[in-house]
Amino acid sequence: MDLEAYATREKQKRRNFELELARQGKPRIWDQLIQQCKQNGYYVLGSGFSQSTKESIRVGVHGFTDVEDQKGYMHRHDYFEMIYVYRGGFVNVFPDHTVRMKQGDIMLLNPNILHAPYVERDDDIVFNIFISNPMIREKIIPLQKDNSLLISFFMEYLYFDSQDKKYLNFTDNSPDSILLTEKMIEEYIEQRPFYQNMTDAYLVLLFSQLSRDYYKNHSIDVLPKNHHTLSYDIINYIGQNCRSITLDSLAKHFQYTPNYLSRLIRQSTGKTFSQIVSQQKLQRAAGFITSTDMPIVDIGQIVGFYDVSHFIRSFKKEYHLTPAEYRKTFSSLQ
Description:
Blueprint: H1 3-23, H2 29-40, E1 43-45, E2 57-61, E3 75-77, E4 80-87, E5 89-93, E6 98-102, E7 106-109, E8 116-118, E9 125-131, H3 133-143, H4 148-158, E10 167-170, H5 175-190, H6 195-217, H7 227-240, H8 247-254, H9 258-269, H10 273-291, H11 296-303, H12 308-319, H13 323-330
Parallel strand pairs: 1-3
Antiparallel strand pairs: 2-9, 4-7, 4-9, 5-6, 5-8, 7-10
Keywords: DNA-binding, Transcription, Transcription regulation
Protein name: Transcriptional regulator, AraC family
Organism: [Clostridium] methylpentosum DSM 5476
């Protein structure tokens, strides 16, 4: 597939759509985002992931019609994002610094990290690859448990208090990494039978190849396993059994005493056992809220919150939005 031709067509479709909005006297999508930014200090992009599509990965072409419009407006989202510079360059502005990317560079960003990305030329071609949180939790992390570079990055966001690792920037990538990236993009665009399986598989391979390139380019050996690996095993087990798990049952499963396991969890994550259980319930609730039209009270009960008022308070404390507000902002069903 000719990715350049595809990107050109997608940009033209966007221009035509915005021209049609103007013809009808309706505001451009970008104008609506700017208004949201002026109200909140940033705008929010939802992934559009839905349980009905079974997609773990989505691909889009970056950029709005007017390049100058893009500068200075911060946004965040509810998914992991991978940026691939296919041609030209790309600029990503963070609150405290700016990263300039060149052709062939790949950046992996945590959700909710404020940034203001833009292209400098209209003929720059940049692909945005959206990766769902369940994809990371359920498929990537289990297969990357011996990869300390990635396991630390993902765990820092998903489970730990630290938010120091906002992104990973992969430069001077090998032809293998470029090939895997473009094959994954092509699979998503063409959407032939079983394309979801193919894109998932390419992403797993890509993460390993990018890590291999990273270690080589930085002249370092593969990092040894760290506490994140054990922490993941524990947290993953909590997540699978969060509706009914107790500290005693968890300790019995991992053959620790409850007191020792409680200290281990606190030392590794900065959170208590109860906080981890609540976080796991809320993450699963957030997934149901955005990908189904199930009533909020039913979602709370499914994940283990039997008092709807407590569920709403806990959810707002974690996500700074009520479940209803979160659905309105991020729902893939709108």
